[in-house]
Each structure stands twice: as C-alpha cells, then as structure tokens.
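S1.2 Input.
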Amino acid sequence: MLSDFYIEDHIKEALKEDIGFGDITTENLAGENDVLNASLDTRVDGILCGIHVFEKVFKILSPEIVVKCYFKDGDAIKKGDKIADISGPAKFILMGERVALNYIQRMSGIATETNKYQRAIGDLPVKIVDTRKTTPNFRAFEKYSVKTGGGALHRFNLSDCAMIKDNHIKFAGSITNAVNKLRGSISHAHKIEVECDTLEQVREAVQVGADIIMLDNMSCDMMKEACKLINKKAIVEASGNVCLDTVRAIAECGVDIISSSAIVAKAPTLDLGLDM
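S1.3 Output.
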C-alpha cells in the first residue's frame, strides 16, 4: 500500500509546502559542519505507525542522517519509551523535524484509535473498517494506519466497489433497478453493496442478490432482525452511530464488519516528540 516511490513523492510535496524557498531560521543558525543528536520519544501509550515514513523524511533531506529505530510499525509503545535515535547534520534534522512528526503522530494516532475499537470488539469474528471520510491526498497513509492498528479496509476509492447509497436508490428508482443496471455494466470482479435503512430495503437487497448489505443507522434489535433476513446470503456491514461505547453491542448483532469514520476522522494525534 505504501511503496517507497509513493512515500517519497508525498514527502517531497510536504517538504515543499513546509520549507518553501528555505528555512530562514535554521539556515541562518546552523553551519554546514554542525551535527545534532536527537531522540524520538513517546509521552503516551499507543500503537506505533509510520516509523519508515518518519525516517524517509530525513533521508530525503540528507543521506548523512542516521535513524536507529527500536520499535516497528504495529508495536505497542509505552509512555517514556525511546522510539528512535537520530543523528546527522543539524541543519536538515531541524528542517525536517515538523514534517516527520506530522506523519508519525497522525499515523500512530489512527493506529491507536483503531486498536481501541478492535479490542472493544474482542474475540467476536467482526472487523472494524474505515470509510472514505479521510484527509484529501492522505488516504493511503490513513488506511495503512488502520491496518496497522488491527482493523480492516473498506473500498479504497470509488472504483473499487459499487456502493448503492440512498441518493443512488432515489436516482435509479429502486434497489432492484440500481443493482440490475450495475450488474449489466460493471466487471465481474467488482462487488455490489447496498445501503439499507429499513427491513423492507434489506429484503429487496437480498432478493436482488446484493453481495454486501449495509445496515445504516439501525438499532441493535433492527440489526439482529436484518441479519436473520439476510441469513448469510450476503456480507453484512453495520454503519452509523459507531463509537467505543456502542461497537461491542453492534458486533454482537451478528454483522460481519463495522464501518466507522471515527477511527480516522476523530482519532487524536499521538503525542510523540523529537528531543534534541
């Protein structure tokens, strides 16, 4: 998902945005021969994610910078842990500090939040997944972070899966019309998902042969009834009003996956710092 060429292109754009025509503070303070030693430390517990991206920021600025990592992505980290040591030209360490931290703090925050949800589900055979409510041009990093935190992934973009939502149903006239029209046009490799708000819609989605049925903003009692109606004829996704307090109860309704924008959109950044 995060190949080196993709990471490098993304980081270069981030550095262009942050450095602009030059770091007027650092370049007028640090000489060419000045060397700096620093450590990446965590102030809180969490799940680490983005250490390779963090390292790549400095390597792009200067191949002379050495980053020695003590943890890998997916590792649980505890308050006070030293995550990595960084040494090399002071000018480039100071110049890259903020961008490097922005990546790893954001990614670790998402991985940590996702992990909380997946642990709340416990041993039930249900996966927490993300949505398309992501930061523009940062989706690959956010999805990688969800996966690192123990979650699973929904469609990557609009070309992955045909998802028929309420506005599509209104436009097509019915679920049946929408599914049949799509089935006659899309590739055999694509699944068709239907968003349902009522049990009547669930029945129609089952009858027309939808591959995935999303139960949108339904009560737990309603979801249990919907799962009985579907009876393993389709993958069942629950969505809407998902938070840490409700995710376990939703999982107990018999659904296969639970999608939530909260694991990305509402995830706080993890408090990591670069100590010189």
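S1.4 Remarks. The longest helix spans residues 90-121.
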